[in-house]
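Before relying on records like the one below, remember that each one covers exactly one chain. Contacts with other chains, cofactors or solvent are not represented anywhere in the record.
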Amino acid sequence: MTLLREQLVRKALAALSEIADECGERPAGKTLSLRFLLMFTFAESGADPKLKWIWDSFWTEATTPKSDRAQDAYIRGTGARSALAGICREVGYPPDTDFLRHLARQREASPDQAIEGDHA
C-alpha cells in the first residue's frame, strides 16, 4: 500500500471512529459521506462479499434511530464500535487500544496536519 493510500485509509477509519463514538447519543445520518466511507473501506479490504455484513452492521447500528429501549445509546454505540473493530481488522490494522487512540488523535489534528502529519 502506498503512503498516500495508507493515509487515506487511516483518515477514513478515523472518520468512522468519530461516527461510532458519537452515534450513541446522536444516531448518525444516512448520508452520502457515511456511505462513501463504508464503501471505500470495504473496497480497500478486498471487497469479500462474505464479509460485507461487517460494514452493513456498522451502517445499521450507527444509524438506528433513538428509541425508548433500555440502554439505547449504549447498544447503538457499542454495536458501531464492534463493527469498526472488524473494519479495522479487515483493512489491515489491529483494532487494539493503541490504534484506536491513534484514530482519536487524527480526529483532533489541526487542518495543517490533515495529510502531512498523519503518521502512525
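Helices lie at 3-22, 32-44, 52-63, 72-91, 97-108.
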